[in-house]
Structures are given as C-alpha cells and as structure tokens.
C-alpha cells in the first residue's frame, strides 16, 4: 500500500485548520486600536493598556490552542502512521493467504511428476522439465506456467503457408526458450501445409473448416487459456477468442474425464513417439513428449497409456499433437528428446515459449 503525498498534505491541512482559523479571527475580527482625540493622555494610556492586555490574553489563549493543536497533530500523525503500518501488514498477510491455495495445488501436481531437473523462470513464464519413465516407455514432461499470455505463440514454417522447418530452427529463429511440434500436415506440390483449421495471430490461415472424422483443434485463447475440441460452427470457436491453434487427432481428456480413443488410433500405430498437451485446473500447461525408435508401432507409447498418464496427473483437458518423427521438444537451445527419424523433421507449425 503506497501513501500518496497529496493525501498526507490534505491530512495536515485539515489538522491545522482550527489553528489557522483562530489566528484569522484574531486578525480580522478584533477591533483595531483606536485613540480617542478628546480624552486626556492618561485615559488614552489606560485604554491602550487595557486593549494591549486583552490582545495579550487572546494571544496567550491562541498560543495554548496552537500548542494543543500541534500536540493533537503529533498524536494523530503517529496514529496515522501506526494505522498505515497495520494496513500494510494486513494487505501483505491477505496477499500471502490468497496465494496459499495456488501454492498447495502446485505442490500437489508437481509431487506426481517428481523432481524437475531443469527449470526456466522469468516474469513471463515458468518452465519445469521432468523425466517420464513408467517402464514401458520413457519421455519428458514439461510443466509450464504462463504468467503472460504472450509468452506462448505459434509459428509457421519459414513464416509462410506451405513452408516447414524443424522445431529447433523455429525456436532459434524466433528467439524462443522452448518449443514443441504442433498440428498435423498434408504434403502437396513439394510443400507442407497445416492440417484443417489453423489460426495464427487471431486469423484463420485457410478459413474455418468444420471438424470431421476424429480431428480436433487445439490452441490458446487471447487470455492465455488452452482451448480445444471439435468445432462444427465457426461462431463457437470465435467465441473462445483463439490467438492461435492447430489441428490433429484425437481428444484425450475433456473436463477431467477420459474421451474414448477411436479404434483406428489405437492401432494405427499402436505405439509411437508422441506429443500431447493438456492443462490443469489453474491453467498451467503440461506437455509430454515420448521417445520411440521408429513409427512401426513397436516403440513409444499408446494413446491410451498417455491418456491414463495425463488423467492420473490431474490434467483436465488433453489433446494429441502430431507424433512419430514429428515429435520434438526443444529447451534452452538443445534437442531434449530423441527424434525417431534420427534427425528433427521439418513441420509447418510449432508451439513456442518465450522468456
């Protein structure tokens, strides 16, 4: 709580007002000294003496009043300071207490992930990196708190429709601290195009396309919240005010509940390198990238395994992003995962994170 100098000045003006008023009354209301012309010098002297005594008495009273006023001002000022200090302490205590539920919740979800072995913290973002190794597969989890909604963005390969680049190149080119691959794509005429509905900087790249088959949209709203799902009407998606987003398949969790994984995606392929993204109740993000040595279905994780993992970690909404050779996780200028192609695959869209 800051004390405004103008408020302090007003306080002292109000406190001094009685004293100033009293002096004003003495100067303005008290009759001037008059010296009658017809009286004798002795009478004039007597009258002057009486008036002088009267003025002296009033000045003494004014002096006492001023002393009392100054004493009152000192006491009031001290009380004001004490009240201000108490209020500051109350505000600080209230602020600390208001953050306790958030701190407790964060400890609870972090405890399920283990101990982070790498951390990035700034006034815009906090990133914590964990290892995921349940035995069947292994990978990495990146928990992200966006303190500033603009700390996460989506980039387009070489900044043009039909372009593609690796996540590492996108991170370095845009000066980001971290990045993952985003939506799916379709190749044509030697170019690589984002799959279905894609939003960049609040605008549709190729127009809105109603959700079909198992495809779903996932992105971030203008206020920094993860949004996603099937959208059959553009007005519904527009109402969420998407800042950016891409499309792939399928939805894994919605509102804390598992969404049935389509049979096709249980076996096509059964196991694979994966990239999934979700959000907690407090809007923190959780990204899991799973390693695999190829896309033949024999390594990596199944979608049901990752669905169960995200569910057990307390994630509310979760979406599968492009996987296989596209899966990539970059942090602090290095490749964290082990790309199944042996090298990072150029893809058209990336989710980037900034300090």
TrEMBL record:
Native source organism of the sequence: Paenibacillus ottowii
PANTHER family in the record: N-ACETYLGLUCOSAMINE-1-PHOSPHODIESTER ALPHA-N-ACETYLGLUCOSAMINIDASE
Domain annotation Phosphodiester glycosidase: ranges: 174-353
InterPro entries: NAGPA
Recorded superkingdom: Bacteria
Descriptive protein name: Phosphodiester glycosidase family protein
Parts of the chain that traverse the membrane: 12-33
GO molecular function: hydrolase activity, acting on glycosyl bonds
């Amino acid at each position: 709580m800051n004390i405004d100098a103008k408020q302090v000045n007003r306080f002292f003006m109000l406190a001094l007002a009685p004293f100033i008023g009293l002096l004003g009354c003495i100067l303005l209301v008290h009759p001037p000294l008059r010296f009658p012309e017809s009286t004798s010098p002795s009478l004039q002297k007597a009258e002057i003496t009486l008036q002088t005594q009267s003025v002296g008495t009033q000045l003494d009273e004014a002096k006492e009043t001023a002393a009392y006023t100054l004493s009152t001002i000192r006491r009031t000022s001290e009380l004001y300071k004490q009240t201000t200090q108490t209020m500051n302490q109350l505000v600080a205590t209230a602020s600390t207490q208001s953050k306790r539920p958030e701190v407790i919740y964060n400890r609870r979800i972090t405890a399920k992930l283990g101990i982070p072995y790498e951390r990035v913290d700034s006034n815009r973002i906090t990133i914590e990196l964990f290892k995921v190794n349940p035995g069947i597969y292994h990978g990495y989890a990146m928990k992200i708190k966006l303190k500033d909604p603009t700390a996460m963005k989506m980039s387009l390969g070489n900044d043009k429709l039909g372009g593609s680049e690796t996540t590492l190149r996108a991170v370095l080119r845009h000066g980001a601290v971290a990045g993952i691959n985003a939506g799916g794509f379709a190749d044509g005429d030697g170019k690589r195009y984002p799959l279905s509905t894609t939003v960049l900087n609040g605008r549709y790249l190729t127009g809105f396309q109603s959700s079909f088959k198992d495809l779903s949209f996932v992105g971030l709203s203008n206020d920094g919240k993860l949004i996603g799902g099937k959208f059959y009407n553009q007005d519904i998606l527009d109402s969420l005010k998407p800042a950016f987003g891409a499309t792939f398949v399928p939805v894994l969790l919605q509102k804390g509940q598992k969404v049935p994984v389509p049979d096709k995606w249980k076996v096509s392929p059964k196991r694979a390198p994966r990239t999934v993204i979700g959000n907690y109740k407090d809007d923190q993000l959780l990204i899991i990238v799973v390693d695999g040595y190829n896309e033949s279905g024999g390594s990596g994780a199944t979608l049901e395994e990752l669905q169960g993992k995200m569910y057990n970690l307390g994630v509310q909404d979760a979406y599968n992003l492009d996987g296989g050779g596209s899966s990539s996780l970059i942090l602090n200028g290095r490749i964290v995962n082990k790309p199944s192609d042996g090298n990072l695959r150029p893809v058209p869209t990336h989710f980037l994170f900034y300090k």
